[in-house]
Amino acid sequence: MINFLKFLTVWVIVPIILISLFFHGVFLMLRIENVNIKTSANAAFKAGLILFIIYVFYSFQYIGSYSKTFNYYDIRLNLIYLFMGIGIGFLLLFLINKIKSTSVISFIILILTFSSTSALFSYLFIQIFNNILISFTLGLAFGTFLYIIINPNSINTLF
To answer: How many CA atoms lie within 13 A of 29 on its CB side?
Structure first.
């Protein structure tokens, strides 16, 4: 049973969290009403995708050479990255709520687009930093939910 839970966490839950970060950026972009800010956010989303493509091409040299090093039976939670993820997840929603009506939101969309796609790519294909990614991603998810617990009305205006 414990091996099934490890498998479920590593190959289902963590990738779903990374994919949801990408879609949060998309939904954030679609909810912007100001035309200038929407144009800026659209460009930031596309720039994030271009950065991801650059990252993929750069990473081709690592695919295969390290892919056998990750064993999901040997998962170790890194508390430093877990707490970093909690702090960044909390801070990310806080910042989004404060700057959602300014063009600075485009940088958040750029960061969400690039970081979620590149982290998912690295997680699935390169697998060098999977223990760090698992710790950080779970912390990030917890931090965002912690912010929503403290400030439940903020999420209604975002997504």
So the answer is: 23
